Amino acid sequence: MAKYFSLHIFLCLISCKSAQHDGLSVLRENLYEVVNSAPGTVGVAFLSDRDTVIINNGVHFPMMSVVKMHQSIAVIDALEKSHGSLDSALNISTNELDSDTWSPMLKERGHSDMKVSVRELMNYAIISSDNNASNLLFSRMVSPAETDKHIKSMAPDTAFSIRYSEADMKANHELSYSNYTTPLATSCLIRQLFNSQAVKYAPLKDALSEVTTGQDRLGAVLEGGSKVQFAHKTGSGYRNDRGELMAFNDVGYFCLPDGRDYALAVFIRDFRGSEAEAAAVMAKISELVYNYVNN
After folding, report:
1. Which of 15, 37, 65, 236 is catalytic?
2. Which of 24, 96, 166, 269 could be stapled to 131 by a disulfide with Cβ–Cβ 3.0 to 4.6 Å?
């Protein structure tokens, strides 16, 4: 009887592993179907404790505003090293601000000299993807090159490059291609961040959980009232000379009520379509991954 029971458990384990493998194969096939039918290059990285799926990870995707997550980590670590505080106030003059860029901060605070804390700048940069806030953090706190060096010193995957600010890329759109990442590098970073127990990162985690941009992207799969913890950072690019959308991105962290978690990064470059169409591609990919994890 004991031998039969042990054999029964063994066969059940083999069956479960086989079903899991089959499910992952189906997910991969479905993801490739979506990716291959999109009018642009789509990169995907799905990362959990038990599964990893990557598609087009050898492509360099322009990060755009996703870099503001890397920037915020570098700012927090720089403040810790210098014994500074997120509540430190910075005096900002009007000539440091661009009135012709995406900047909810400027709309809220007006076109005048202001005093803003580092925490407020980080929140503006992350939650509403404010370009002025990001430019100020790069010029006052950590430069793009310093950010690149620091994140590479701690990240599990260093297949990215941070060289330019939002102001640089606005002046020359082609520079956007030089601020690049692979999907896996970014999904590893956001999962590392949310699995970290370091208290210093709590404000950044909170901000990423309150992001207001790109509600039709990775988080579209979550129904109203969902108990899934979701945090993400979006990035959107300019149109290139061919009229293609240079970048349309979202990297997210999902934590289910039972404690299981996963990271998902979807990057789209040189997309021959509208932002709404790119968002639909992204939302479909997120739906496929979410359904796989919950089955």
Report:
1. 65
2. 166
